[in-house]
Amino acid sequence: MALSKNARKVLKVMARRGAPEVLFALGRGPSRFSDLQAVLLLSPRTLAERLREFHALGFVERRAFPEVPPRVEYTLTAKGKRVLEFFRDLEAILDAQEVKR
To answer: Which residues of the chain have pLDDT under 50?
Structure first.
């Protein structure tokens, strides 16, 4: 059984620099760009690319507030939370295998 085109697309994005870290950081709750950048220590370009890719996949919601100065928050969608849970489960499986060796 081969992976679907969508599954391959998600795995390709998740393999990029900083992608898992961005997903896990957003799992803690809504965040602004500058907060994510400070925590993750990614370049602004890399962080913006990951957020754009996650938004295109439907994992992240971008909410712009009509304020001066502009304020934008990023949050995980239900789909993004499911993907995050999948990666947490994968991590638990891999950690359990390490202990058994």
So the answer is: none
pTM score of the predicted model? 0.86
Instruction: Give the whole-angstrom CA distance, residue 75 versus residue 60.
Output: 6
Tokens of 49: 């690319």
Q: Which residues contact 44 (CB under 8 A, 6 or more apart)?
A: 33, 37
For residues 7 and 67, the answer to whether their CB atoms sit within 8 Å is no
- Tokens representing residue 76 in the block: 């995980």
d(CA 99, CA 5): 34
Backbone angles phi, psi at 44, to 5 degrees: -55, -35
Q: Dig out the tokens for 87 from the structure.
A: 């990666």
What pLDDT sits at residue 101? 56
User: What's the whole-number average pLDDT of the chain?
Assistant: 92
The DSSP bridge partners found for residue 75 are: 61
